[in-house]
Model the fold of this input.
Amino acid sequence: MRGTVWGLVAMVTGAAMAVLPGWWARAQRATELTLVGYAVAKPVFAKLIPEFQKQWQARTGQRVTFRESYGASGAQTRAILGGLEADILAQNIQSNIDPLVEKGLVRADWQKRLPNRAIPATSVMVLVTRPGNPKNIRTWSDLTRPDVEVLLINPKTAGNARWGIMAGFGAMQRSFGEAKAREYLQRLVANTKVLASSGRDATDKFVKNRIGDVMINFENEVLFLNESIPQDYPYVAPSPNIQVDFPVTVIDRTVDKRGTRQVAEAFTRFLFSPRGQEIYAEAGYRPFDPQVRRRFAQRFQPVQRIYKIGDFGGWGKVNALLFADGALFDQAQQLAAQVR
Done:
């Protein structure tokens, strides 16, 4: 009898081992991904990563760990160019991916490999004020009033800043013409109290150090802020506004070198899945999926008119006009320094 029992156990064990080797090998072959992102991306990826890890392990048996780095978006691109081996890059502006394409780190077709030109979510630029909005700041023009001090982000270091400056400049240009837009930029810079290095640095300076009457930042950042602290900070999403894009890509040179392409691409695809889109919406982003966006519509301030960066010729043209060395932003800073 004992022999029969042990024989049966051996048969079952043998059959199981015949089925399990492939699964077991994958399960034991844990992999690590390095995710590099813009400064204010940490809260949303803190929710996206665990959900992906759970789904991926359930489907493949493989455990995935993440190393994460968040900082000013321009600095993150420079770090990768300098040798940081990132598997995945989450950016807040396309022009910070272009140099990686030029250097051969990312393939030129990166926008075609994912839905919506590799943009899982968007936002708009908003004006964040002190509680109660004591200066009654409502429009882009209000930022040029002599009684208003602005906390601005440095466009030389952060994509967030370029979106914020372009949002107001573009609104003034489309509504009143080029001359008024340039005048707006000069007065905005003249009213700037401090240049922060990133969106998160701006939030810290505005809340903790109480610098400025108003801060220009992503809508998703102020929604995160108001859920993180007891006191709400009101914000206004002026119209016209601009659609802020948050593109994502794998770093082709790294994933091919490290053999992580399959799981890295799976993670980027997950961002566009129904669950990924829900997480973006919960974190204050405007998801690209129209069904998810409709479900979360009440979470966001309505904006009647939203331009896209393509309406202004794309980032190549905008950067040359506003942010290149000696362009309009530098000119406005020089003029402000002379007045002071």
The two ends are 98 Å apart (CA to CA). The chain has two domains: 31-122+245-298, 125-242+308-339. The first strand starts at residue 31 and ends at 38. Residues 119 and 247 are 4 Å apart (CA to CA).
